[in-house]
Specification:
about 130 residues, mainly alpha, Arc Repressor Mutant, subunit A, 8 helices, about 75% helix, elongated, disordered C terminus, Tscrpt_reg_AraC-type_HTH, AraC family transcriptional regulator, transcription regulation
Length: about 130
């Protein structure tokens, strides 16, 4: 690996680490590009080439991952969690959650709560397709 590629990867990792640490903060491309010491356009292109997704999508995914954890581990309502993980509107949070997870935050919490109350031997059998009929 050339030194230039190594430096570029290191710069992208600095920005990604900042996103991981401050996912709930209002992060924007200019701030992240400054962390990586590159221009905004170069940052977006290089981040996507390095990690396979845009910085915006990465940040959204990290926020949704944290929200999933909070939905399962806390009794906080969906609106509180939405703002706690850095979304500015419940509509955007719900839409993004559904795009990434495949169901609404409320349905995700409800389904996981039901699954937690089913003995694992039944849950495994229930999840398998029936060989009868």
């Amino acid at each position: 690996m050339s030194r230039a590629v190594e430096e570029s990867n290191r710069a992208m990792l600095r920005a990604r680490d900042a996103m991981d640490r401050a996912y709930a903060e209002p992060l924007d491309i200019p701030a992240l590009a400054r962390i990586a010491h590159v221009s905004e356009a170069h940052f977006i292109r290089t981040f996507r080439a390095t990690f396979g997704e845009t910085p915006h999508r990465y940040l959204q995914r990290r926020r949704i991952e944290r929200a999933m954890s909070m939905l399962l581990e806390t009794g906080r309502d969906v609106t509180e969690i939405c703002y706690a993980v850095g979304f500015g509107s419940l509509g955007t949070f719900s839409r993004t959650f559904r795009q990434i997870v495949g169901e609404s935050p409320t349905d995700f919490r409800r389904r996981r709560a039901l699954a937690a109350n089913v003995p694992s031997c039944f849950a495994k059998a229930w999840a398998r397709p029936s060989s009868f009929g």
